[in-house]
Specification:
The protein contains 19 helices and no strands. It is mostly helical and 486 residues long. α1 (9-20) crosses α8, α3 runs antiparallel to α12 and α8 runs parallel beside α12 (245-273). The chain is globular. The chain binds 4-fluoro-L-phenylalanine.
Length: 486
Amino acid sequence: MKRDSFGSRLGILAAAAGSAIGLGNIWKFPFITGQNGGAAFILVYLFCIALIGLPVMVSEFVLGRKTQSNAAGAFKAIEPEKPWYLSGYIAIGTAFIILSYYAMIAGWIFSYLGRSITGELITIAPEQLGDYFGGVIGSNIEPMFCTFLVIAFTAFMVLSGVKDGIEKYSKILMPVLLVILVGLMIRSVTLDGASKGLEFLFKPDFSKLTTKGVLEALGHAFYSLSLGMGIILTYGSYINKKENILKLAFQVTIADTCIALMAGTVIFPAVFAYGLEPNAGPGLIFITLPAVFREMPFGAVFETLFFLLVGIAALTSTISLLEVVVAFVTEQFNLTRKKATLLLAVVIYLVSIPSVLSFGAWSGITMFGGKTFFDVFDYTASNILLPLGGLFVCIFVGWVWGTENAVKEITSNGLFAFKYKGLYDLIIKIVAPAAITVIFLNANGWLSKLVPEGQMGTVMFTGFGAIVFIGMIVLNRRNRMKKADF
Ligand code: PFF
């Protein structure tokens, strides 16, 4: 069976940026920025994106393109003798689990979109918005129906294939997203009192930065760029050899980062202009923002546009999460795309139900020290599987396949220039694995057990410096020894 592929450069960019730009940018980035004090957190985030996110994205792209295979097949193609394909299974499993509850959250967005269109949301008094949100997500049937809609839409777009489905719809949805975002941004920054919000976003106050914030920035860089779960790898496998992967990864990273900053520029100036708190956490867009829209002239229109924006961003990401699993199942079990997509859509929907009910009928069912089904899925995927997936990609590309081979693929065998070979080598072999290990230890609460309270910052900073330094020496020696071999 001939493999599907993207049809145009713009299409690849729209699909990959569409995957990266999602709830992570418009929902999570603003709320974690709010919780971590604003601009200083953003600077650290930008640093993580440039230093670690971009090189890992390049590695995933080239691994996919080189092998022209799905997330598990790629590892097998390069190392057929050892069970490296298991790390592909981890990535695919992560995409599967995340999709099940990501679709639920996207479903909440569609509930809110419906309630904005009917004009109901705008009538809710600010002090009731918290209970209202709890009521919507706890109502069982409606969130179950909306999750179904999200999975059905996603399956519909994936069904027609890479070029005629994913690429086609991304090319329509992404420009719409951009237009709405720019419109909302103009509205927000021209409100009286918007400047305080802009200051919060862009004027760093490093005293507000904590070690927890730094680790959160690093973890979010992975989440936001869709790394560690085979998405970029799978999309890479649909790209031909004439594309400049480095340029592509750079553009996707820039687009993802700009959209996150633009989402912040929509949300914070408006929040400050109406005297609300920026640190509401996950409720920022469901509880704080509807209070903002209530006060704004033509608020109902902007509210509808906002939830449409988030809905579109979520859908272009759910497409990519589903595609990882569909690509694997079609190639592994020789199923047609249609059969695989429909089958997986049904299974993912069934798996999403316990998460949906965790906020309603099953909220009392808890395990592992008070975790609901949703908490268990989220914890397993975000804190365990996602970092492991990222770690394995780096180790595999850095040490098993080898950065020299990856560089050959990055340059398309010398067709394009690549000036940063040494830096790339250092990052993929040492810096990124070390950073991901720290995220992993921290996310599971092990880091605080290893490092005494109050000394986390110093220990991390020195530890990290030492790792980079030793890494540079080791890699330098290895390279010299290799040259001497010839
Ligand atoms: N990168 C997308 C987002 O930021 O929302 C999609 C995504 C990637 C979602 C990774 C979840 C995830 F763990």
